[in-house]
Write a structure and sequence with these properties.
It comes from Geoglobus acetivorans. By secondary structure, the protein is α/β, with parallel strands linked by helices. It is built from five helices and five strands, in the order βαβαβαβαβα. It has one domain (2-112): Rossmann fold (3-Layer(aba) Sandwich). The protein has helices at 10-19, 31-41, 57-67, 80-90, 102-112; strands at residues 2-6, 24-28, 45-48, 73-77, 94-97.
Length: 115
């Protein structure tokens, strides 16, 4: 399974990469790169931050779902309480709040993993 990690914080990307070491992971540090990488790689799941330079997670989620309406985008953000609804309206399947636990990430991935 391929997972695209999208976050402008290198530490968060590294942590997610370690948690997801059993999967093939790719990383983008802004929404524009995420959309380009989605088109090229067609990952099974996208873990999407909310606030990033160039293009935020809301717009990137919309664009990814325009490319592929079946895309699975999971929001991973510290701003769940005030912006999470916007990410859900853009098409995210669910939101995981930062700080997150390994368990939350693994459980979310397993919910959407294609068998």
């Amino acid at each position: 399974m391929k997972i695209l990690i999208v976050d402008d914080d290198m530490t968060v990307r590294e942590l997610l990469r370690v948690i997801l070491k059993d999967y093939t992971t790719f990383e983008a540090d802004d929404g524009e790169k995420a959309v380009r990488m989605y088109q090229e790689l067609k990952p099974d799941i996208v873990l999407m931050d909310l606030f990033m330079p160039k293009m935020d997670g809301i717009e990137a989620t919309r664009k990814i779902l325009e490319i592929d309406p079946e895309a699975v985008v999971i929001g991973v953000t510290a701003f769940h309480s005030n912006k999470g609804d916007e990410l859900m309206k853009a098409g995210a399947k669910e939101i995981i709040s930062k700080p997150f636990t390994r368990k939350w990430i693994v459980e979310a991935i397993s919910r959407y993993a294609k068998v």
